[in-house]
Specification:
435 residues, alpha+beta, 4-stranded mixed β-sheet, 4-stranded antiparallel β-sheet, 18 helices, binds zinc ion
Length: 435
């Protein structure tokens, strides 16, 4: 089995999304039973868990296809594959660039440290937090003075360390997926309201479950952005913190690059101004996330109600309406980056649907999109169900390549074989390049 890049596992590890292969694996669930359950009106606990897991992974697909960051990333993947299929050596830098990105962006796993796995024991033992900064390693294995990284450190009540977590692309994406799960569960909870006793029991369970994962030391990549919102703005309502964290995370995945220099650096960072300037020049998404929250802190505390327009204004940014227009222009500009090759048509379908989806959900994820909507526009990834037997030995590799070159649709097994082959080739190439 080849090394898999950019896999986003679900918190219970029963599922993942592969950004390179653009498919979802739901190993715990069988296809027919699951589809029947999804169609059923009543939502038992099994169905709620299935819906949550499916929508969590689908959110990764949504963010990878309908944010400016996601579209750029997807185009990079397809351009690298097309350059390989075109066998055009002068274009192979695209493969090296993609592999460098993958290896760098997996840094959240390396820099994420769990010191203490003790489960959360109640609100009286709330964690404390602080922001810290360090330097990242470069390709030669040296810490690089121009490559800073920002972390959140969590400590227990006695000040003992619990975990250290970078605010990274991974944490932005997991923030959105966890928020998607929350919205879905809250919606289902509302349907229980006609039985007031059951409703109260389920509501209690819902709040308890939220606390359990938010304060799970091993899951802080999923919760760090929401913790940052709670701590900086002083919010105790988890749902509100997650909503703000998701809107801001999505905005940062869409943010026009010239905004980085426009946003004033908050006085909180005065004592490490030089490092802060370095973060800005590196267009560091984690730093800018925290900086925008600090810029918003005073007016949020004064008014006591979340307002996206105020959040933007406090960082010297245009209105949501103006930003929607700018984001759309930037997303449309990406089209010119697409190169020719056998997978161009497939990429164009993803690209055009992605633009459509971006319009629907908004640059701040104001309109959460679910599986039903994706089905209605026929835009969702391959789903690998638990009972699916991948009969890879029966696949004729030559036939797969013939189909690719003639732009004939592949079934999942064929696509999987193709992805494995390409990843192997990319791995060999990046070794040759010393990446
Ligand atoms: Zn995830």
């Amino acid at each position: 089995m080849n090394e898999k890049y950019e896999i986003f596992p679900n918190i219970s590890s029963v599922a993942y999304y592969s950004s390179f292969g653009q498919y979802i694996c739901l190993s715990k669930y069988n296809e027919k039973e699951s589809l029947d359950k999804l169609r059923s009106v009543s939502k038992d606990d099994f169905t709620i868990e299935l819906l949550s897991t499916l929508n969590h992974e689908l959110q990764h697909w949504i963010d990878h296809t309908s944010t400016v960051w996601g579209l750029e990333n997807t185009i990079k993947i397809y351009n690298a594959i097309n350059s390989k299929l075109n066998n055009k050596e002068s274009d192979f830098w695209r493969i090296a660039s993609l592999m460098k990105d993958y290896k760098q962006s997996s840094y959240s796993e390396y820099y994420h440290v769990v010191h203490n796995k003790t489960p959360f024991s109640g609100l009286e033992n709330r964690w404390s937090w602080n922001i810290s900064m360090g330097l990242k390693f470069d390709h030669d294995g040296c810490v690089h003075p121009n490559n800073p990284i920002i972390f959140v450190r969590f400590n227990d009540k006695k000040g003992e360390p619990i975990s250290r977590t970078p605010i990274s692309i991974h944490s932005f994406l997991e923030t959105n997926s966890m928020y998607k799960e929350l919205v879905l569960k809250a919606k289902i909870l509302q349907t229980k309201k006609n039985d007031i006793v059951e409703y109260h029991i389920k509501q209690k369970e819902f709040l308890k479950d939220n606390l359990r994962w938010i304060y799970n030391p091993e899951l802080t990549v999923y919760s760090v952005n929401s913790h940052a919102v709670s701590n900086i703005l002083g919010i105790s309502d988890i749902s509100l913190s997650m909503e703000i964290a998701s809107q801001l995370s999505t905005f940062i995945l869409n943010m026009p690059p010239d905004f980085y220099d426009k946003i004033p650096i908050n006085k909180y960072f005065n004592s490490f101004k030089e490092r802060a300037l370095l973060f800005v020049s590196q267009k560091d998404k984690g730093f800018i996330f925290l900086n925008i929250l600090y810029n918003y802190k005073d007016s949020f505390t004064r008014i006591g109600k979340f307002d996206l327009e105020n959040l933007l204004k406090d960082s010297g940014l245009p209105t949501t309406l103006e930003i929607e227009t700018l984001v759309k222009i930037n997303a449309e500009k990406l089209y010119s980056q697409i190169i020719n090759g056998p997978l161009r048509n497939k990429l164009e379908i993803i690209y055009h649907n992605g633009i459509r989806l971006l319009e629907k959900r908004g640059s701040f994820n104001q309109n959460v999109v679910d599986f039903e909507y994706l089905q209605s526009i026929n835009f969702y990834p391959f789903i690998l169900w638990g009972d699916k037997f991948l009969d890879l030995d029966s696949i004729d590799n030559d036939l797969v390549m013939h189909k690719i070159r003639n732009q004939i649709d592949l079934n999942f097994e064929e696509w999987y074989i193709f992805e494995e082959y390409i990843l192997k080739q990319f791995g060999i190439f990046s070794n040759i390049c010393g990446i």
